[in-house]
């Protein structure tokens, strides 16, 4: 009669806990959740025993917990091979960074506001800073109609890029829903709440135009001026840029499939440029009742800042170096928007082109 092979050596839960730096309590929890099953459970005592080769998985679970990944995400990552797991970790951290950036800006503002410095700053700066602005929208050379809407007012700057059969009414409705914020002074302490309310109004206005579908809708990138801050709302692939001290910074994140693949490391920037689905939106204002919420952020304003808001009809054909060159060398906002649209036209303008340029200047 053949003999059974000797049992493989195992480690007690105490020894495994010390080697993996996971507490026995955590190991019992991960067993219950199916994240890290023991190699053997003693039928008499119920003691858990672990194989030495399980240490690598245990360390991975511990690292992912320290990273802040939810248990459901850890379960998925732990089941993948190294390359796939690395991509998922990269994608998770990209999402964390995006969420943290928005919270960091809000936290910074709240600290200033609660300590009274924001109120003092606004009282001082409201009478010394203002916006000078211009907006321009063009059909381009290929599209039969212009579905973009561009607007610049005393306090509201906005660009919306409509799509679908009702794209033009959708973009117009979204921008129109923000224009009431132009009517009076807006305190920095409540501007994000006011903007959030206005965006809900814009969403409802788009739904009235689009009906219950996600085939019709619009992007929306807008900024609202308080006299010392600019509050930003953004959804879709229109963009906002800040030119400060000669450096051009993109202050929005594209909500597109291709951008998600870039964030996750699944595409290179060169591959993204030629991707067949580079215009496919991951987020937009549509008639869909479950449409995701836009990004909301608050930016400090400094004299000399220049902002550009534009639809993707500009950024897909005019590189950022050329945008920076125009914004740096053309001082008048009206002339700057004409120059930007002309650059898109020279490049073929396959899409509608819209842009807003606004300068933060000291009043006389």
Summary keywords:
single chain, 364 residues, alpha+beta, five-stranded antiparallel β-sheet, 41% helix
Taken as a percent bin, the fraction of beta residues is 15-25%
Poorly predicted sequence stretches spanning 5 or more consecutive residues = none
- Average pLDDT confidence is 85
Shape: elongated
First-last Cα distance: 102 Å
Class inferred from helices and paired strands: alpha+beta
User: How many H/I helices?
Assistant: 13
Number of strands: 15
Biggest β-sheet, characterized?
Answer: 7 strands, antiparallel
Structure description:
The chain is α+β, with helices and mostly antiparallel strands. It has 13 helices and 15 strands. The strands form three sheets. Strands 5, 6, 7, 8, 9, 12 and 13 form a seven-stranded antiparallel β-sheet that branches. Strands 4-15-14-10-11 form a five-stranded antiparallel β-sheet. Strand 10 (239-244) and strand 11 (247-250) form a beta hairpin. It is elongated. The protein starts with 10 loop residues before the first strand and ends with a strand. The model has no long low-confidence stretch (mean pLDDT 85).
